[in-house]
Amino acid sequence: MVDYLIFLAISTSIFALFGLGLNLQWGFTGLINFGHVGFMTLGAYVTVLLTLQGVPVLLATIVGASIAALLGLVIGLSTLRLRADYLAIVTIGVGEVIRLIINNQELPVGDTWISGAFGVQSYPIPLATIEPNLPLRIAMIGLLTLLGIFAILALWKWIRSAQQQLKLAKGKRSSYQQEFLSRLIVGSLLGLLLLAIYISGVISLHNDTPKAGLMLVCLLVLAFVFWRLEIVLRSPWGRVLKAIREDEEVPTALGKNVFLYKLQSLMLGGAIAGVAGGFFAWQLSAIYPDNFQPQLTFDCWIMVILGGSGNNIGTLLGAVIFFTYDTLTREFLPKIFTQLNVEQLGAFRIMFIGLILMVLMVWRPQGILGKKEELTLGK
């Protein structure tokens, strides 16, 4: 059970990070990116291939994120001056082209060159080869404890802000009450999940469980990216992005370089996806081009839409819901529908999550935590 919670924590944090990049591009800027997996693919392969050449993991991750951001620059320079439809078409094509190129290209793996179709294996994974002594284990547990305290305080502050808005509200108290209730429920559920992950993490770090260190690094990077995004999106830069999402003619009239802001958003979101790609590769321990199918992009879209676009906490919630659904259906569907084979069960799981998304779009199109006035769909 502990090992499975560690796996779930790693998967959720990776795709939450992946989703934060897409939420920046679409939720806050209104850029439709259907090839987000292309940024992840570049980040994963660049990071892994550099580590096999002896480059330190941290530096390899930074270079991988930079190359992914450079891809955003290339795409942006060629499409952002056109209508949004062209950006969607180009991104989905670029994402698939990158995967196919890697599949048919020879890659430098150590001192040899191998076909990309054979995959890349046996690359270094952060903290996996370290055998920590007791002081180091205590330090890692202390770091996880500080991270847990930070997360709980952030959730508490998030809930308290809704409660204060409810107290100050004079009209439309029902909408503020609904907002406070939804934050209280979501915050409580996330708090319980954090507690379960914390307990599992402490046990795993103490017992030196494989990939426990990777879980700690994933959570630390996710917390750092989330914290910095929350700061910059509340800054004047972030307010300009929201203005572009609503109506780009307004910031243009105010003298803002809309093209430059869009380019920066696309590049930063791509860099975040590149970092997520590195962690995805470390989680898999061996990567193949087929690991980066377009389905990953649409899974990411599901997470962002479920949680609520334009809301970073909503993206985290969407990732939690998606992987909870994925876990439960993998475990229980074969026991319920015994007459279905593996392929049919996979199709059924995709069909059912699509049905849930359709119901959500009718009942609450802005997502669970999104705001209807900030909805970007249909604009």
Describe this structure in words.
Helices cover 75% and strands 3% of the residues. It has 379 residues and is mainly α. It has 2 domains: 2-128 and 210-374, ABC transporter involved in vitamin B12 uptake, BtuC (Orthogonal Bundle); 132-209. Strands 1-2 form a two-stranded antiparallel sheet. The protein has 13 helices and 4 strands. Helix 5 packs antiparallel against helix 6 (173-206) and helix 5 packs parallel to helix 7.
Structural features:
ABC transporter involved in vitamin B12 uptake, BtuC, 379 residues, two-stranded antiparallel sheet, two-stranded antiparallel ribbon, mainly alpha, 2 domains
How would you summarize what this structure contains?
With 379 residues, the protein is mainly α. Helices cover 75% and strands 3% of the residues.
Q: Order the strands across the largest sheet as they lie in space.
A: 1-2
| DSSP strand tally | 4
The count of domains is 2
How many individual helices? Answer: 13
CATH architecture of the largest domain: Orthogonal Bundle
Low-confidence stretches: none
- Fraction in beta strands: under 5%
* Rg of Cα set: 21 Å
